[in-house]
């Protein structure tokens, strides 16, 4: 999953970034002002955008309206230092999906971001089941027939993304877009490495195939 | 103070005026009518006296003598309240007397006409002298005989006529009084109605709706229109003050919440995993610098609150005299490390004689320090800041001039607003919260002075402060 933080307070953005990377395993990008936020949000595939309202360049509400007008459909979580109902109602009406008032709790922020990603992908619970596989997005564990499967961080990210998009064909470039932020070098062949690792660990001795390769297109996770 | 009713007062005034008018009219009418009635009564009295005198004639004897022929007495004379008369010749021979109480007539009357009481009844008497005897006698005395006639008649009828007339005037003024009271109540109610309408629309003003709908009825009344327009202006001013207060609160909330959010997130993310000593150490120093920012903001807001308290006093406090030059030097000394760190230089020009104003020295020092700090922050790295103190008529003038980029003309009116930042970015790169100039303005105005900013050409900004001098 890939998250964009549009926030002019660098330290706050850094803290949120660290937290999302560490406790959710998300790829995180940071835009320090409204203009850059607008540019980044329109040119990359984000699963959630965290948006501060008071921004240099373009202010948060304006940015939000422009993104929605441009047809961006990702969930947006607004951070605001104003907690008057009027502002909050306006923000939600402008197209925000949720809000948090400063000062907020990092744990709550992460839980809300996860919930928004679930909703955005059409899921209802934090635990995703595909056949005998169970992906728990809360503690970031994967079980197969009830047995814990040890995965690397990147392997987990791939399976989590595929589980969220179960049944759909996910291309390699989509995976790259959603699993890496700007801090990472991207090579499309590493995806193949993760996929084969996942197959080995999940399908192991079993006969049942879970991750299907659609040649020339990508992968799909289904029973 | 006791409350009172305008309506009651006006009605009371109308009734009082009306009563005075009625009494005055009554007195006037009474005196005119009385004089008129007396004049006609006197004429009638004279006529009757002459008629009675005409009954004196010469007897038909050989030596004719004057006799009174009482058989021809007019009827009224012997009516319910009989007239009185007394006729004598000029030499005092009594010729005739009316029956009854003519003694009252003789004893009271000395003048030509007078009023008296006889048996409890009012009478008016008249004395006619030198009345000739009408009856002629060829062989009469050589010297013609003249008569003196004293005649009186009851004035009771005239008096009761007059009383009836007064009573009818009095009675007719009562409905007049009632009509005017009613009319004045109606007029007052109608006149005051716009006031209650105005009160209604003033009552509808709340923190959500600040528009004062001046009713047409109030705007059209010449006496109420100034009140309505004063009320509108007052509401407008209150609205602006309320808006400013609300903006201040919401800005203050924003400014306080943001550093708290940073501090909280720093500590929470530090606790999320177990980390190395170095990470903890840098995390704690981050938290401390966040805290320092919070502390600075708190400090500024407390200062602003103190400045507000100062300027909310109606009168300029009786501070002791303070030399402005000294406070400028103190502020410059305080800021010189900061200036050096930015590569800025501060120069100070002041006259040799002291410039005294009445103010608290630490407040003035804060003002100068805020202006200089603002100049350093927003100027180029190696800016030259000039502080000039001088006397201008009745004022001490302090100017802080920088050679920065200047301020856009449109921003000048706003730059003393609380939490206003020139760059709009609210970026903390240049530091400050947009409170420094607001604090300076509040203090300066609290001491009866003024502050204004001017953009200089080709570059730079001048912030000028004027405070009344105290010799």
Your description of this structure?
The complex is a heterodimer of chains A (223) and B (471). With 223 residues, chain A is α/β, with parallel strands linked by helices. Chain A folds into two domains: 2-120, 3-Layer(aba) Sandwich (Rossmann fold); 127-221, Winged helix-like DNA-binding domain superfamily/Winged helix DNA-binding domain (Arc Repressor Mutant, subunit A, Orthogonal Bundle). In chain A, 43% of the residues lie in helices and 22% in strands. Chain A contains eight helices and twelve strands. Chain A has a five-stranded parallel beta sheet with strand order 2-1-3-4-5, with helices on both faces. In chain A, a hairpin with a 3-residue loop joins β11 (211-214) and β12 (218-221). In chain A, α2 (34-43) runs parallel beside α3 and α6 crosses α8 (188-203). Chain A is elongated and about 55 Å long. The two termini of chain A are 23 Å apart. The mean pLDDT of chain A is 88. Among the domains of chain B are: 6-163, Beta-Lactamase; 313-468, Histidine kinase-like ATPase, C-terminal domain (Heat Shock Protein 90, 2-Layer Sandwich), CATH 3.30.565.10. Chain B starts with 5 loop residues before the first helix and ends with a strand. In chain B, β11 and β12 (395-402) form a beta hairpin. Chain B is rod-shaped and about 170 Å long. Chain B is α+β, with helices and mostly antiparallel strands and 471 residues long. In chain B, the strands form four sheets. Chain B has a five-stranded antiparallel beta sheet, sandwiched between helices. Chain B contains nine helices and 14 strands. In chain B, 51% of the residues lie in helices and 18% in strands. At the A-B interface, α1 of A face α5 of B.
